[in-house]
Design goal:
Blueprint (H helix, E strand, L loop, with lengths): L1 H21 L9 H5 L7 E6 L3 H11 L5 E8 L2 H14 L11 E3 L3 H5 L6 E4 L6 H10 L3 E4 L7 H16 L4 E3 L7 H11 L6 E10 L13 H7 L11 H4 L2 H11 L5 E7 L14 E8 L8 E9 L6 E8 L2 E4 L4 E3 L5 E4 L7 H15 L6 H20 L3 E2 H5 L40
Parallel strand pairs: 1-2, 1-4, 2-3, 4-5, 5-6, 7-10
Antiparallel strand pairs: 7-11, 8-9, 8-15, 9-10, 11-12, 12-13, 13-14
Helix pairs in contact: 3-4, 6-7, 7-13, 11-13
């Protein structure tokens, strides 16, 4: 009975601590958590949807925050991934991990069972194609959400995510998206200065994610095609969206933040020059996109040039820059320069570590009764990345309005229930996959 009362009080706290925080002037000797309740376990109970490296990292960072937390439920499409994640987290946070076999869920429908568990906040870091479904279900279950970026791989998924985002606001749920640069103090201070006119009117910007690429996983004996693609998810658009969506979104989000919203159109080019082996699936290894921003605080038709590349032995750069009428800024370096290139301001050391800082911010807000919701800008920065892919795959100039209305479904995720199902793309006889060809590939 005591345990039941504590659980009820804990849930009430997470719903009503806003009122407690508002009473701070009366109960100034207590912090917001203490003011809400002083005689029960105020532990925030966590669940994980997806048990790969990123969700394992997010759970680790969540349990590094101030205040009691406990991981109580996990799910993944693969049991070996779940068990590996569980062992890692038990080693790092022995007393904060309580996930017995009955709260370990495996399979495509594991998230449904997890959301029936007594959890307060769910960490979602499955392959991006699944995220609209998982976010929608989490909101329906009334859970606070941390979801990794990107939040979808096609316009249909974005529309679905945005609809669930509106419901999350009605339910006063906290939603955080893993675009961690928005929580880095160096970026925050730099952005404030730019918006305050530090370099005058912004006239152009550049963004880069150029690197050597990521892991590949070879086909194993006995795997179904579904299991192979799920294990090698980065190289299939219905799961990943291409690296312009999965990784370059970080830099595109910074420019969206600078401009005050997403671009109005894009055109670009890309291809598959080096990473052409069977294990590289169907995605490109380079993209170059020209994005045009419309109604910014500095006027219309501001251009941003975007590059992302997965080819070894080339010039690498993961960064953002902008130019203004009175100077320029290295956003990633948190430095501002005058017209002659002289440095006029720099943030200096510190202000980084966004992966951990975003969780410090999340749990501090949750415990204070604040409910920030990052779902909309997370969705529109994802859609910016998808717009860029549409432009490079098609070779055409595409408006954001048309892209967001596209009925081309890349990820029909609701169809799948097991590893014996047929994925939406299949290999040719030589076990290679069809590659999008500009000029003929349909994106709208």
């Amino acid at each position: 009975m005591a345990s039941q009362k504590n659980d009820s009080s804990r849930r009430d706290f997470l719903k009503t601590s806003t009122a407690a925080a508002a009473a701070g002037s009366v109960l100034s000797s207590l912090n917001a958590v203490q003011a809400a309740h002083t005689s029960y376990d105020e532990t925030v109970r966590l669940g994980m949807i997806g048990c790969g490296g990123r969700c394992t990292g997010a759970a680790d960072q969540a349990m590094n925050t101030e205040g009691p937390t406990k991981l109580v439920a996990m799910c993944d499409a693969f049991d070996d991934r779940l068990q590996g994640s569980l062992k890692t987290l038990q080693r790092k946070h022995k007393d904060k991990v309580d996930v017995p076999a009955e709260r370990q869920f495996v399979g495509f429908d594991g998230y449904k069972k997890l959301l029936e568990s007594d959890i307060d906040l769910v960490l979602i870091a499955t392959p991006p194609g699944f995220r609209p479904v998982h976010f929608e279900a989490a909101v329906a279950a009334g859970k606070h959400v941390f979801a990794e970026k990107p939040v979808a791989v096609d316009a249909a998924g974005i529309r679905r995510f945005l609809k669930a985002a509106e419901e999350s606001k009605k339910k006063d749920l906290l939603v955080q998206i893993g675009l961690q640069r928005r929580h880095e103090r160096a970026y925050m201070e730099t952005m404030k200065r730019l918006h305050d006119g530090a370099i005058g009117d912004i006239v152009a910007a550049r963004a880069y994610w150029n690197g050597g690429g990521v892991w590949t996983r070879n086909r194993q004996p006995g795997q179904t095609e579904m299991e192979y693609q799920m294990r090698n998810w980065y190289y299939f658009n219905w799961l990943c969206g291409d690296h312009i969506v999965e990784q370059h979104i970080h830099n595109l989000d910074v420019i969206n933040w600078l401009m005050g919203g997403p671009p109005v159109k894009a055109q670009g080019q890309g291809g598959r020059q080096v990473r052409t082996s069977k294990e590289h699936g169907e995605i490109y290894d380079h993209h170059f996109v020209e994005f045009t921003y419309g109604d910014t605080q500095w006027g219309n038709n501001v251009t941003m040039l975007s590059q992302c590349r997965h080819i070894r032995g080339c010039w690498n750069k993961v960064d953002e820059f902008c130019a203004g009428t009175n100077g320029s800024c290295h956003l990633g370096g948190a430095k501002i320069f005058d017209k002659d290139g002289n440095e006029t301001w720099a943030y200096g050391r510190g202000g980084r570590g966004g992966h951990q800082q975003e969780h410090h911010d999340l749990f501090a807000d949750l415990r204070k009764g604040k409910r920030p919701n990052e779902a909309v800008y997370g969705a529109m920065s994802t859609m910016t990345s998808i717009l860029g892919r549409m432009a490079t795959y098609s070779g055409k100039e595409i408006s954001m309005e048309d892209a967001l209305a596209s009925e081309v479904v890349v990820s029909p995720i609701d169809k799948f229930t097991s590893m014996d199902d047929t994925p939406p793309v299949l290999p040719n006889d030589d076990m290679t996959y069809e590659i999008p060809m500009p000029g003929s590939f349909k994106v709208l």
